[in-house]
Amino acid sequence: MKKILVLHGPNLNLLGKREPEIYGSMTLADINELLYQRGRQDEVLIDAVQSNHEGVLVDTIQSAAEQGYQFIIFNAAAFTHYSIALRDAIAGVTVPVIEVHLSNIHKREEFRHHSVIAPVVMGQICGFGADSYLAALEIVLRKLK
């Protein structure tokens, strides 16, 4: 069975409560359920992991291949802008990664405009709310066929 890992970074556990004018009203559980449902349509297993801890995310990325994942969809959240550890973890694995963001990071505060992980991921999708995740999943599903 094909497997996709969806990683959610810090503070995404607060979705639905935290700044809904920016991030929307959907919870992380709502987004995960949309992804699970879409994966089931193509008989693809999707596992979602959320952590506020950089090391947990690094460990999860590093073990993705041995866990049998073919792709990672990753919203690194605030770590996007400064985590060289996550950048290096992505660069050090063979599993392709698509970077996603709920908001358009390029239209926000200046410090959010730069992604340190962008140079080592397959691509970046941002600004479409939960649809950013779904768009990434559609790309992954096409790549897996």
Automatic annotation (TrEMBL):
Q: Where is the active site?
A: 23, 101
Source species, domain of life = Bacteria
What EC number(s) is this enzyme filed under? 4.2.1.10
Keywords from the named record: Amino-acid biosynthesis, Aromatic amino acid biosynthesis, Lyase
The positions annotated as site (Transition state stabilizer) read 18
Q: Which GO terms describe its biological process?
A: amino acid biosynthetic process; aromatic amino acid family biosynthetic process; chorismate biosynthetic process; quinate catabolic process
User: Which GO terms of the molecular function aspect are on file?
Assistant: 3-dehydroquinate dehydratase activity
Q: Which InterPro entries match?
A: DHquinase_II (IPR001874), DHquinase_II_CS (IPR018509), DHquinase_II_sf (IPR036441)
Q: Which residues bind substrate?
A: 75, 81, 88, 102-103, 112
Q: Which pathway? A: Metabolic intermediate biosynthesis; chorismate biosynthesis; chorismate from D-erythrose 4-phosphate and phosphoenolpyruvate: step 3/7
Q: Which reaction does it catalyse?
A: 3-dehydroquinate = 3-dehydroshikimate + H2O
To which protein family does this belong?
Answer: Belongs to the type-II 3-dehydroquinase family.
What binding partners and quaternary form does the record give? Homododecamer.
The record describes the protein's role as: Catalyzes a trans-dehydration via an enolate intermediate.
Q: What is this protein called?
A: 3-dehydroquinate dehydratase
Source organism per entry reads: Propionispira arboris
What gene is this protein a product of?
A: aroQ
